UniProtKB/TrEMBL annotation:
The chain crosses the membrane at residues 62-81, 93-114, 163-185, 205-228, 240-267. It holds the Pfam family MlaE. Keywords: Membrane, Transmembrane, Transmembrane helix. InterPro entries: Permease_MalE. This is ABC transporter permease. It comes from Myxococcus landrumensis. It comes from the Bacteria.
Length: 268
């Protein structure tokens, strides 16, 4: 009679799980570094028609959603912060507080999450479809570089779209914050924009723009790496789209933590 195998200890299973996560992290970091390096090499031969198409899809088509989200976020920030502002008798500082929150946190974070769901998933699905359909390999077969034709235009378009939309979303959010403060807290627009202008500096705007640009680069690289690594049939396309959203959102939150520490320390 063959003896039954000895069950593995919980400690060994936990160690194996940690090791697996470590290998996945190293593998993912390597894939991102490879995509970034090949994208940089493909920039001089970037396909301009693909860049134009990507700019329309990534930027122009996303603008209405970004504007609507910015308007709602601005109103919600004022409604939420207004409770504490009134409690401590600090209504005059609402312009500074709400503007600081939008520029440094809510604006970049919401825009990044929207774009990761709308564009990151789409980018990963399109590249995964071409990968499993053999189109990527076909381009290599006729001597064309997929990174110059497909990847570099998308990365550049995502970066330009995020930077451009950050300006519009910040303006819309702050405008709706001032209107919400006027109607809900009876705070004059002059008082709102007075503290906003006197207590915030151009560096605060630059901090939000830097965060948005870094988030856009992370979304484009993560979704591209996930799409190009897809293997299998139609199910691989769905998995790539879902994985791109999850990984992009995780990258955004990690980068937000790191950038907040670095930029806050630099500006202190």
């Amino acid at each position: 009679m063959t003896p039954s195998p000895k069950p593995e200890s919980p400690e060994l299973n936990a160690l194996r799980g940690v090791g697996g996560l470590g290998l996945e992290a190293v593998r993912g970091t390597g894939a991102l570094a490879l995509v970034a390096a090949r994208t940089v090499l493909g920039l001089p031969r970037l396909e301009r028609r693909e860049l134009t198409r990507a700019l329309v899809q990534f930027g122009y088509d996303s603008l209405p959603l970004a504007m609507a989200t910015a308007a709602l976020a601005g109103v919600i920030v004022v409604l939420q912060s207004g409770l504490y502002i009134q409690r401590f008798g600090a209504r005059a500082f609402l312009g500074w507080a709400s503007g600081y929150g939008v520029l440094w946190e809510f604006g970049p974070l919401l825009l990044g999450l929207i774009m990761s769901a709308r564009i990151g998933a789409r980018n990963a699905a399109e590249l995964a479809t071409m990968q499993v359909g053999g189109q990527i390999e076909g381009l290599r077969g006729i001597g064309l570089d997929p990174f110059a034709i497909l990847v570099a235009p998308r990365v550049v378009a995502m970066e330009l779209s995020m930077l451009a939309m950050s300006t519009f979303t910040f303006m819309v959010a702050i405008l709706f914050e001032s209107v919400a403060a006027l109607f809900t807290l009876d705070l004059p627009l002059r008082t709102f924009f007075g503290t906003f202008a006197h207590m915030l500096s151009p560096l605060d705007i630059a901090g939000g723009v830097v965060k948005t640009g870094v988030f856009g680069l992370a979304i484009s690289l993560v979704s591209t790496a996930v799409g190009l690594s897809a293997r299998g049939g139609a199910q691989a396309v769905g998995r790539a789209a879902a994985s791109a959203v999850v990984q992009s959102c995780a990258a955004i939150f990690v980068l937000d933590f790191v950038l907040t520490l670095l930029l806050a320390g630099w500006m202190a």
